[in-house]
Design goal:
binds beta-D-ribofuranose, 9-stranded mixed β-sheet, binds calcium ion, single chain, two-stranded antiparallel sheet, 13 helices, globular, alpha/beta, Inosine-uridine Nucleoside N-ribohydrolase, Chain A
Length: about 325
């Protein structure tokens, strides 16, 4: 069977980096066409470099392109207090031998979609603000015909993390989210309702850190940084949000999903960046809806699948790098 073609848009970011590890562990199941970086958790310089170093370290041999250096309308946010000054929980990855593409990420997306074999489409996995994808859709509206679906980490039904109702990726660029939501492309929103369940517990993180396995250890170190330096320490567990879109691709059965219509508040004020999921089944024909929101997740299965994948990835890396 033909493998699903995927492009990753991300802002590494501790959990983006762990998501790249999870993707690398499963790369035989997909055809990953490239990684585009977008400003979000850190500056565009840092997240682009991080994407390149992390991908190469975990054995993802794909092009990496630098994207938008800030949101469409407002100034960039960053999340250094969560992800550290370097964006990777102060963990050091070896400098990649490869280079970032000269081509801008938005143009890379356009070209890659244009060059697809006839009738083929791409799945986008987005784990940062939706700025690059929105720019693509604005500049090249026909590009949407080549996108099968966008599975993104962002948004929330029950409550936010940056404000009482807004989640970081959407709050960072609500105008971009609005463009994507209105595009008609099928969407899967992996928001906080599911991702706050998708955690690693303190003892699991400690075991990863103490393992001699290179992938497990560096992912444990990164997750440990977030766990010890944020409010996650009071919970005793840390959400690995950005793994969820990948996990949903491979194990949809561990999530509760509901079909919905997505929109987002862009007005200035307390609700800016809040996602609105219309779940009024009596108001529309659910069967006709092409987008969905994840509302719950099986925490134990998530932990089992993620931890197993990290150890398996590390086995393939042993001997390649000094421990
Ligand atoms: C999201 O925001 C970022 O800090 C994480 O990388 C994740 O994509 C969680 O709200
Ligand atoms: Ca992210």
């Amino acid at each position: 069977m033909e493998k699903r073609r995927i492009i990753v848009d991300c802002d590494p970011g501790v959990d983006d980096a762990i998501a790249l590890a999870y993707a690398a562990a499963n790369q035989d199941k997909f055809q990953i066409l490239g990684i585009t970086a977008v400003s979000g958790n850190q500056s565009i310089e840092k997240v682009t470099r991080n994407a390149l170093n992390v991908a190469e370290y975990f054995g993802l041999d794909v092009p990496v392109a630098r994207g938008m250096e800030g949101p469409i309308v407002k100034e960039p946010l960053s999340a250094g207090e969560i992800h550290g000054e370097n964006g990777l929980g102060q963990c050091e990855f070896p400098e990649a031998a490869g280079a970032v593409l000269e081509e801008h990420a938005v143009l890379f997306l356009y070209r890659t979609l244009k060059e697809l074999p006839k009738g083929k489409k791409v799945t986008m996995i987005a784990t940062g603000p939706l700025t690059n994808i929105a720019m693509l859709l604005k500049l090249f509206p026909k590009a949407k015909e080549k996108i099968l679906e966008i599975i993104f980490m962002g948004g929330a039904v029950m409550g936010g993390n940056v404000t009482p109702s807004a989640e970081f990726n959407i709050y960072a660029d609500p105008e971009a989210a609005s463009i994507v939501f209105q595009s008609g492309i099928p969407l899967v929103m992996c928001g906080l309702d599911a991702t706050l369940k998708c955690t690693l517990k303190r003892n699991q993180v400690m075991k990863l850190c103490q393992s001699g396995n290179p992938a497990a250890k560096i992912c444990g170190d990164m997750a440990g940084f977030v766990l010890e330096n944020t409010s996650a320490k009071y919970r005793g567990e840390v959400s690995i949000h950005d793994v969820v879109p990948w996990m949903y691709l491979l194990h949809p059965e561990i999530f509760t999903a509901k079909r919905t219509i997505l929109s987002v508040e862009c007005a200035d004020g307390p609700a800016r960046g809040t996602t609105i999921c219309d779940l009024r089944w009596w108001d529309h024909d659910e069967e006709g809806l092409t987008s969905a929101v994840l509302l719950d997740a099986d925490q134990e299965k998530f932990q089992e699948y993620l931890i197993t994948a990290l150890y398996e990835l590390g086995e393939t890396m042993k001997g390649k790098y000094k421990e």
